[in-house]
Batch of 3 targets.
Target 1
Amino acid sequence: MKRIGVLCSGGDAPGMNPNVRAVVRAGIEAGLEVWGIERGYSGLIKGALAPLGSHDVSGLINRGGTILRTARCAEFMHAEGRAQAAATLRARGIDGLVVCGGDGSFTGAQLIYREHGIPIAGTPGTIDDDLCGTDHTIGFHTAVTTAVEACDKIRDTADDHDRIFVVEVMGRRCGAIALETALAAGAEVVLLPERPGLGPRECAQRLRHAREQGKTSMLVIVAEGAGKGEAVTKVIADALPDAEVRCSVLGYMLRGGVPTVNDRILATVTGVDAVHALLERGAGCCHHIGVIANRVVRTPLSEVVGRPKIIEADLVALVDVTAGLRPWQSG
């Protein structure tokens, strides 16, 4: 293996830049040429790629986003698109590919490996923390930190005006961001897609009981997959007509910002090992590079793709325990 490519795919995540930096530096250290591919699989199909040197990735360790840009590519979902991407790689003499992305990105990576024999090393770049084979994903810690900082500010206003605030965070299928944000921000209730038994109506019942106990301001964290913030706010406002209920949607701000120490280290460790995995496994490399219990773990992509990560039930219970509410009415 003499030349490898690196791309970022899907939604952007803080830490992608440090990951690209690590791949380039590790590749050069191993005597490889490293080519950067712009805008994910779309750039691969269109031939938007160029060699990267050590100087090209200087100053990336503390930069959010990705200098390579990222995108979702409908063309790559079809065999013809993947064939064009493989042809691009072969025409440029690229022997292996590092893909930083999430489940959808790895689905495509696995297919181009199976159909065209392109060696793949995947690094977990997604704020959702929804990938198996790693304790956390690149960008998750930064996203939670951003959300908690916002909630701390919202809590000040909630206290000052005796309001209930509903804060919606990203997470269509996985409630990890909402769960850890709720725990760190001291939220009274968290709504998760993995916990369908606790929805907006049950949330309103808990808040009513809390007000009866004397609580005047409260914070509700909602993962977008468990209900839209505005809709949840309306249910609560209808159930508690004497309360002031407001909604704040954090949205895409969670994808940006300077990556935290945790994300910089995770991005660096996985980026370096992705290069090593390609060199060591060669044509048989189709692996996800993660970190479990502070150890680098290589898992076949077939054991990662399409397998939802289970959130920790103990953390869910901790939100309830630390909410400061005496047992609520169930009826």
Note: The chain has a mean pLDDT of 95.
Target 2
Amino acid sequence: MPNLFEAIASDSDYNRIIAEIKIKSPRDGDLLGNRDPLCIAHNFETAGATALSFITGPVEYGGNTQLLREICNQTSIPVLRKDIISSRSDIKASVGFGAEAVLLIASLLERDLLRNLVSLAHDIGIDAVIEVHSDSDIEKAICTECQLIGINNRDISRFEMDSGTVGVTEELRSLIPSNLKVISMSGIETSLDLKRVLRVSDAALIGTALMKSSNPGAKLREFLEYSIRR
């Protein structure tokens, strides 16, 4: 299995979409309904997702690490663990659950701790995606050994309750060195949104728009039609 960086950086006729299995959100409430999240994960992989993302935070997002483990066990593509990762033990636990990558939120971590967590992740063989939402976050991120930066179009400090748009990716991308791979995350709801972010980034992470669909796999295939490299 390629790691997340390799999956995003590899040659393909398509730009990359990371599909997120999202149980619920503070903004939209229940997103799963009575559906099986493992079935959704399988459908995303079959439809052509580059990678999967799963939020393990139990309170606001309804996730758990056991389900993360089950998703990782059944898939052959990388899985990103999204949560508030803040310690070495969090990184090591993520490996034990089977995650190929972890999310590190720049605004929540001191500069030295962020640098150390990125180094640890690389040392034990997984990728670290640093989430940014401002120029100060980017300044902190590029002082690490990171290869992947995720621009969150919404504000995590408000539990993404703000009306963030893909314009955040368009605004911040020019501040990130060109040798780093950029993932645009959140707020991607339409094919036009996807086209806009893929003009300036290497991949898009889409969750809510897929989970709101009655057929998330088919919705992903629809988005993929707009991600062909011209």
Note: The two ends are 27 Å apart (CA to CA).
Target 3
Amino acid sequence: MGWRTTGDVAEFLAVAGEYLWRERARNTVILTVSEQLRVNPASFRPSSDAAATGRASRPLLGWWADQAGAIGGAFLHTPPHPLLLTAVSADVAADLAVALTARTLTGVNGYDEAAGAFAATWRAATPGGRVTEERRLRLYRLGKLTWPDPAPDGAPRVAADADLALLAEWFAAFADEVNETDAEQDQAVAVRDKLSHGGVLVWEASGRPVAIAGVTRPVARMLRVGPVYTPPERRGHGYASAVTAEVSRRAREAGAEEVLLYTDLANPTSNSIYQRIGYHAVEDRVVLAFLIH
């Protein structure tokens, strides 16, 4: 049967939801972004700059089925983010790139073989197209939570609307540090979405915010931590470890069976921090960026 696409997240989840939930940890991003898209579609509204330059397009979702109709792959694309691809074979990934030749893509996020095949097909079909490796990501799952020792000074609190300006600034700084595609976008929309479900924890020391940790909406009895950010001048005091440990504890207490997070493999500090508080590596993904000269 091959690939089928839709702009309707409800249809997508009705068809591909069982396939995604079967390996919910591996499919955490596509599940949580689908849920965010279902609950708050405005959070994926293209920026005015993107619309003015013709880069704006609506979110698109899809699934791959074999001749018997069994679902064996899925994707989600919310511009300007790279296309997000589940585990599929190289041939199936290449077929998707062919099917999406008319769509503006900034990159692909997937497993090595599939992402490479998708990118090679896109490059062959795109005059002047060039592919670069943007970053490698590692997925971690929380095991036994270990509180940072020694614990830093301060205490956590749930972020409120009054924190909007500060959080938007810190979300943007985080996006810039990890080289996210939407780093230059107004982060207020993303912050408001997090605030709408109590999804940001602030660590305060001496009465001032010093670090934050966000979480996604729970879906399939799972949620994902992120972003985690400490301003450069506040680093080295254990605030990131503490706020991540606390937001993880609260997630578990609220009933999450899977508490997950991604790190950039190029950042050894964050990888070691999360392992020390009880996170264990699950798998790696690669993000490839698409450029046109």
Note: Residues 239-253 form the longest helix (15 residues).
